[in-house]
Recover the amino acids of this structure.
């Protein structure tokens, strides 16, 4: 079986907040601008500044191109940022809900609970995410 056969398209995407994407892009632009300014001033620190500037640009591009969450046939995938990738299967989730601070609380069949930060997700899509997690037919 090829890897292309294993990739399934998501049934539903949940987008990022545009202000979150814009702030990430502005931080990247600030790093790149300071790096260019240091190069124009012939400062050797420009080479050290290239590392965070490159990482910030890559992270901003990754945030722009990847959705916050995706609903698949048997799982939900949360990708808050480049280093945070959570994959939860529907057969494990018992209930889902929000707390007062806006975090998603997942309760599993074995009694464990997990809080997932939804910071960076579009606020208008949070009720749709909860409905997708609590509906029996996903």
């Amino acid at each position: 079986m090829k890897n292309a056969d294993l990739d399934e398209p998501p049934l539903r995407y949940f987008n990022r907040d545009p202000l979150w994407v814009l702030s990430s892009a502005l931080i990247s632009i600030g790093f790149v601008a300071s790096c260019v300014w240091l190069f124009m001033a012939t400062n050797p620190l420009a080479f050290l500044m290239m590392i965070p500037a490159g990482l910030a640009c890559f992270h901003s591009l990754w945030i722009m191109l990847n959705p916050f969450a995706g609903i698949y046939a048997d799982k939900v995938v949360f990708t808050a940022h480049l280093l945070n990738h959570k994959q939860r299967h529907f057969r494990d989730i018992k209930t889902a809900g929000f707390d007062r601070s806006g975090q998603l609380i997942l309760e599993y069949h074995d009694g464990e609970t997990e809080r997932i930060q939804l910071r960076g997700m579009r606020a208008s899509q949070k009720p749709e995410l909860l409905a997708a997690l609590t509906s029996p037919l996903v």
Q: What stands out?
A: The first strand starts at residue 12 and ends at 14. Helices lie at 3-6, 18-40, 45-65, 126-134. Strands lie at 12-14, 69-71, 75-81, 84-89, 93-98, 104-108, 113-116. The first helix runs from residue 3 to 6.
